[in-house]
Design a protein that fits this description.
With 72 residues, this protein is α+β, with helices and mostly antiparallel strands. The protein has two helices and two strands, in the order H-E-E-H. It has helices spanning 2-22, 40-69, and strands spanning 26-31, 34-39.
């Protein structure tokens, strides 16, 4: 079973490396009056991390709200 996990990690790592190699073009991101130019792969990773953080905050808020509402 350990070899299956290692194989899955290797495949995912290979896909991430290929994604980085194929998406080196720059994209312009603007918010209000600030504009930033960055590689596409970096933008995708930043959006992914922001989604993980915001999803974790929402999940924690809901969990605490439900737990607090169930207390007598």
């Amino acid at each position: 079973m350990r070899f299956l996990y290692i194989a899955i990690v290797v495949v995912i790592a290979a896909v991430v490396v290929l994604f980085n190699i194929q998406n080196v073009e720059s994209v312009n991101v603007s918010l209000f009056s600030v504009s930033v130019s960055m590689p596409t792969w970096l933008m995708v990773y930043l959006v992914y991390i922001a989604g993980m953080l915001s999803g974790g905050v929402v999940w924690d808020f809901l969990r605490k709200s439900i737990h607090g509402a169930s207390r007598p």
